[in-house]
Design brief:
It contains 5 helices and 7 strands; from the N terminus they run αββαβαβαββαβ. By secondary structure, the chain is α+β, with helices and mostly antiparallel strands. The strands form 2 sheets. The chain has a 4-stranded antiparallel β-sheet with strand order 5-6-4-7. Strands 2-1-3 form a 3-stranded antiparallel β-sheet, sandwiched between helices. Helix 4 runs antiparallel to helix 5. The protein starts with a helix and ends with a strand. Helices cover 37% and strands 29% of the residues.
């Protein structure tokens, strides 16, 4: 998830699924590092949401939401027991999740002739780019994601190999799965 609306949708879907539970406690942290939210959902203040958020932080992840659903089993855990239980549930959840590394890219469009296509794709690959699509009509339109930190270098390389004839068109910044 990449924004608060997606996190809230996820949390609400868990609450609907477990509407008969006593507590659906949650915490989330988004990539900007400043957007975070947590709720104790009726548990004593500071015993549930904050411990989950601390676990998320300890894993060094972002764009992450954790919901812990608790049904009352007749045993009072006390504040320390609640903190330990919610922390452990969050820890187990993250340990058993696929954590994906994301990287910032610039989505770029390049229009070129057929004879330049191979060279441009080669430069994109040398810069760690990933081709999203190539449309072949009277010319070629290449949709490529270039790592944000190499985007200016990429643009200069394209400008150079085409003798100033082509300048890549920046479309948007996107986060994509990173395997490096």
């Amino acid at each position: 998830m990449s924004d608060a609306a997606q996190a809230d949708d996820f949390i609400n879907s868990v609450k609907v699924k477990h509407r008969d539970a006593r507590h659906n406690v949650f915490a989330y942290l988004l990539k900007d590092g400043r957007t975070m939210r947590y709720s104790d959902d009726g548990e004593p203040q500071g015993t549930a949401g904050q411990p989950i958020l601390k676990v998320i932080n300890s894993f060094g992840v972002c764009d992450c939401a954790v919901v812990v659903t608790r049904y009352f089993g007749g045993i009072l855990l006390g504040t320390g027991g609640l903190q330990r239980a919610y922390s452990k549930a969050a820890q187990l959840s993250l340990e058993n999740s696929e954590i994906v590394q994301m990287k910032l890219y610039r989505r770029t469009i390049i229009s070129c002739s057929y004879d330049m296509y191979g060279r441009i794709v080669s430069v994109a690959g040398d810069c760690g780019g990933a081709i999203n699509d190539s449309i072949f009509t009277d010319n070629v339109k290449i949709d490529v994601n270039i790592p944000h930190d190499l985007a200016d270098f990429f643009a200069k390389q394209i400008y150079s190999i085409t003798s100033g004839g082509i300048m890549p068109e920046y479309i948007e910044s996107v986060y994509c799965r990173h395997s490096g």
